[in-house]
Design goal:
The chain is mostly beta strands. The chain has helices spanning 30-39, 43-49, 61-69, 80-87, 282-288, 387-390, and strands at 8-9, 94-101, 106-111, 117-122, 131-136, 141-147, 155-160, 166-171, 175-180, 187-189, 197-200, 213-218, 224-229, 233-238, 243-249, 255-260, 267-272, 277-281, 293-295, 302-307, 313-318, 322-327, 359-360, 368-371, 382-384, 394-398, 403-408, 414-419, 425-430, 436-441, 445-450. A five-stranded mixed β-sheet has the order 3-4-5-6-10, with no helix packed on it. The radius of gyration is 22 Å and the shape is globular.
Length: 477
């Protein structure tokens, strides 16, 4: 029997704790420098525009433009980091405008990789059609309605192929369905106007409990699917061979999240209800048959994982009401001991115990922790902000208190909170290029947040230590 360990108490006041007035300390890690390099102005512009030491961190757009006209950088144009420095301060926090409302819980909201399409998926309802709706983002008109089939409870995940020609969706079942998105008909009815192909991941006829898939992702080349399942395993499905080609017994409990670490597809990140994040290297898996490394630090199960895309850093949302930032170079090869919980708690229908909020894992390997949002009732998702417009300067997440939270990656400070919905926000997604964010809620609403917002002028940024708020809404930094 594995030896158990007890968690220790910690205030964690320097990592964006909700309601804390303590000054936040900045992240002292390589990823902080990488983030600053990707979202800070050229050093020559910083020196030329700086009025004080602190202003080097923030140069106004007016000064940036003036320095460009004078060719201070010597390049005659803005770099990608210069662009991010300007655009990252204009957060998509205004609105919202309702895109669609349905008498059903919204579970998934995702932009395509190029931002041209948007996917919204809703929970199964007996009294109405099961629906996945795909929009053209340029005019927000419906491109296709997909009438789903063979669902158990809800759609757990949906994923577009890299070429945006196919969509897969999963449920609490051993089958993933694949649908042709690029075809002509606006309405896709299973086995009527278009064929929904069934991709069988497991035969659960002899299982005591229904087999379920919580997360499904396309590989970067679109040839393979990766799935996280409630039997503790990760599955890889080869679309050309039309079969499962790899099963990894990954966790001792449900696997709620899985994703590729980068474009190569060699590294895989997974997170489960055993409170662990694991890294898998497919290049040596056949020889070792075990995880390349383990990262412990969450006190409760992991609900979602998002990769920074560099094969080194990722974030995870946890039922311990925290997002954690990880560096895989800190991973351990040792099998951790199981944690001893001193209270009974189920996140699906109970509030997180107040005495557990300040607990800290004794062997926390995470780089940073972000708190303020609530992870209750469902597998709430979190993400890095886009590379193109923000340099991945922020992380953001849905919350069971009906809001969307945006945190500064380096400082841990909560820089935005979007309040509109009347129920849990399970998913939200930031457009890869525009200052636009879509939130989907259990109140059935898909809402669009933008900067500056319809018929609004840009809100002034901080000037001489003073700030201005507009109509009581969150103000971009």
């Amino acid at each position: 029997m594995a030896r158990t360990k007890k968690v220790s108490s910690s205030t964690e006041g320097s990592r964006g704790k909700h309601g804390s007035d303590e000054r936040l300390s900045y992240l002292d890690h390589d990823v902080a420098q990488l983030t600053k390099l990707g979202s800070s102005p050229n050093a020559f512009i910083s020196r030329a525009a700086a009025q004080s030491r602190n202003s080097i961190l923030r140069v106004s757009p007016v000064k940036m433009l003036a320095c460009r006209e004078m060719n201070i950088s010597g390049k005659g144009r803005f770099s990608a980091a210069d662009n991010c420095h300007i655009s990252s301060r204009y957060l998509p926090v205004h609105g919202p405008r309702s895109i669609y409302r349905m008498n059903s819980r919204a579970y998934v909201s995702q932009f395509s990789s190029d931002g041209s399409l948007f996917v919204a998926a809703f929970q199964f309802r007996f009294e109405q059609e099961n629906l996945i709706r795909i929009y053209n983002v340029d005019n927000w008109k419906t491109k296709k309605d997909i009438m789903t089939k063979s669902l158990r409870w809800t759609i757990t995940d949906a994923s577009l192929s890299p070429d945006q020609q196919h969509l897969v969706y999963s449920s609490i079942s051993p089958v993933v369905h694949i649908v042709n998105v690029g075809s002509g008909p606006e309405e896709s009815h299973a086995n009527v106007t278009e064929i929904h192909e069934e991709l069988v991941f497991s035969n659960d006829n002899e299982r005591r409990h229904p087999f379920g898939i919580f997360s499904v992702k396309f590989s970067n080349d679109g040839r393979e699917l990766l799935a996280a399942c409630n039997d503790g395993s990760i599955y890889a499905y080869d679309l050309a061979k039309d079969k499962v080609t790899l099963r990894i017994p990954a966790h001792s409990s449900d696997v709620n999240a899985v994703c590729f670490a980068d474009e190569s597809g060699h590294l895989i990140y997974s997170g489960g209800d055993d409170n662990l994040c694991k890294i898998w290297d497919r290049r040596c898996f056949s020889a070792k048959g075990q995880a390349a490394g383990v990262l412990e630090g969450h006190l409760e199960g992991i609900t979602f994982i998002d990769s920074r895309g560099d094969g080194r850093y990722f974030i995870s949302n946890g039922k311990d009401q925290a997002i954690k930032l990880w560096d895989i170079r800190k991973m351990s090869s040792k099998i951790p001991s199981s944690m001893e919980r001193e209270f009974e708690w189920d996140y699906r229908w109970m509030e997180y115990p107040s005495r557990a909020r300040n607990l800290k894992h004794p062997n926390d390997l995470s780089v940073s922790t972000y708190k303020g949002h609530l992870v209750l009732r469902t597998l709430i998702r979190c993400y890095f902000s886009p590379v193109y417009s923000t340099g991945q300067k922020y992380i953001y997440t849905g919350s069971s208190d009906s809001s969307v939270y945006i945190y500064d990656l380096v400082s841990g400070e909560q820089v935005g909170r979007l309040d509109h919905h009347e129920d849990t926000v399970r998913d939200c997604n930031w457009h890869p290029y525009y200052p636009m964010l879509i939130s989907s809620s259990w109140d059935g609403t898909i809402a669009r947040w933008e900067f500056p917002g319809e018929h609004e002028n840009p809100v002034p940024v901080k000037m001489n230590g003073r700030s201005t708020r507009s109509r009581g809404r969150p103000r971009p930094i």
